[in-house]
Every structure is written in structure tokens, then in C-alpha cells.
Amino acid sequence: MLQCTGGKSPNQADESLGESKTLKDMMDKFMLEHAPTVSTKTQTSYSASLKHLLPYFGDSKLSAITPKMLYEYKVLRKNQGAKPASINRELAMMSKAFNLAMKEWEWVENNPMSKVPKEKEDNERDRWLTEDEEKRLLDNSPSWLKDIIVFDLNTGLRMGELLSLQWNRVNLFRKTIVIQESKNGKPRTTPLTQKAADILTERSKIRNIKNDLVFTSTVGTRIDGDNLRRAFKKALKKAGIEDFHFHDLRHTFATRLAQNGVDIYTISKLLGHKDIRMTQRYAHHCPESLRVGIQALEICHNSVIIKENQIMANA
Fold first, then answer.
1. How far apart are CA 49 and CA 45, in angstroms?
2. Domain boundary assignment for the chain
3. Alpha helix locations (H) across the chain?
4. What's the pLDDT tens digit per position in 264-307?
5. How many Cα atoms sit within 13 Å of 245 on the Cβ side?
6. Which CATH number is associated with domain 129-287?
7. 67: pLDDT strictly greater than 50
8. Could you tell me the fold of the domain covering 21-102?
9. pLDDT per position as a tens digit, 106-117
């Protein structure tokens, strides 16, 4: 028996319900049901994206959001000074929500984001710390920041991974740490250099009783990312180092590995890259590994010549 739905069948009622939904309705449901299933870092990214998406699209009906409207949003964000990566991140969240609204909630029939190309991102930044710059930076950093810098130069962790590192993920005996909340969604075990292990050994002697975090503020609380960036920027200025960001410590770690002959596959694993193509940016720093490949080819070529000469000599 059909339930009373104001003269409409249940399917028609569901359809009209979906058509009445706004982007804010969709995002509220998205944050309530989907956001808890992702990492804390991704949830933070979602919240940051909503600060820009909701003022522009919030009251718009889902059926009224078109590729043209999305394009105009991109133009607005560019004029506001947003970077391509930020715009892509915001629209990727919106696209994910639309996919759920289309495939699982049956609120819409299509995803308007499917017709909107991503902004081209310049991810080929090639800036790393020289040995002289490293010395100057450390000389101009307070002790708590110095530990973080040296540790990151020896592990290549992302800022979020470093600040969320807990003692229960540290094994000083085996000299390893486990990154539980990595960007690719999968935990990874990272071996430690002796220098990185020494930092953890010293910090273990003064562990904070308020929480299990390895790196904490001077009052024992979690270090805020923005505060860390400000302190890092201040140290850079005192050291006279320009065009360098905290994330470039990670680039420095990878670049130094490549310059010392470590293969791209190993670097990719140490960085926690999901796709080795993300690591290819460091390939030009690996001339020695390329030379090994050429030498192997030469050995193969020479062995063929030797065999041919032996055959001719025995003929």
C-alpha cells in the first residue's frame, strides 16, 4: 500500500526532496556521515574548504549548480589570491560530496564537477637546503625548533605527520617510527638515522605527562601548525635564508637521498608516496644511479664482444 505523500508516489517524493536540497544541506550531510571516516588532517582540510565554498554556493539548489557557476567560482578564488592547489582541493571536496549525493543519497542525477577541469598546479618546486643554510638556520633557531628541523631533515615527514607523532609509535630499540595518519591513508614504518634516533632518545627523558605527543609546545600542548610556520619563518629571516618553506625540509630530505645515489623507488617509499610518479621530480638528482645503469649496459655489450671474438678465434 502506498503511503500518503501529498498525491505523489514515494519515488516522486524522494525526487522532489532531492531537488529541494541546497549545497549547504549536502555539505552538512557530507560532514556528518563521510568526514568521520577520513583522517583528522583531511577533516581539517574539509573544514577549511567549507569556509570558501559555503559563502558562495551555500544557499544554491543543487540542481542550479552548473559548470559555468563552478568556473566563475574558480575565477573568484584566483582573484582572491588562492593557489591552484587550494582551488583544486576545495572543488575536489565538492565533487566527492556530489558523487555521494548522486550514487548513494540519490539527490542528484549528475555531478557538475565532472565537466570542470582541474587547475594546473606547479608542484615542481625544486628548493632544498644547502649545508651552509642548514647551519645558519639551526644557529638561529630555539632548541625546540632545532629538534624539529633536524628530525625532519632526517625523516622527511610532512608537518602534520611530525606534529601528530606519538611515543607509542616510536621504537628506539629498532630505530623506527610508525606514521599512522599518512596522506595516502595507509600507515608506514620509517627507519631512523642515528641523528633522528638521538633526538628522540633525548626527548624521551623529558616526556610530557599531559599527552603522548613526541613534539610539544613549551607548555606541553600540541604545537599549532601556524605557530610552527611563524617560528620557522622568523628563524629563516634571522638566518638570511630566502624562498624556503617548512615543507622544503621534506624536499631537502628527498633531494639529499637522490644526490647520494638512492633509487627513486626507495625514496618514494620513505616519503610515503602512493604513486611513484610523485617522486619522479627528484630523478634528475640521481646521476649516479643512472650511471650504474649505463655501466650495466656496457658490461653486457662488452661480454657480447668477447663472446664474438672467442667464436671467431675458434673458427
1. 6
2. 21-102, 129-287
3. 10-19, 23-33, 40-57, 67-79, 84-103, 131-139, 143-155, 159-163, 194-204, 225-239, 248-259, 264-271, 287-314
4. 788 888 888 877 676 666 666 555 555 554 566 667 666 656 66
5. 9
6. 1.10.443.10
7. yes
8. DNA polymerase; domain 1 (1.10.150)
9. 999 999 999 999
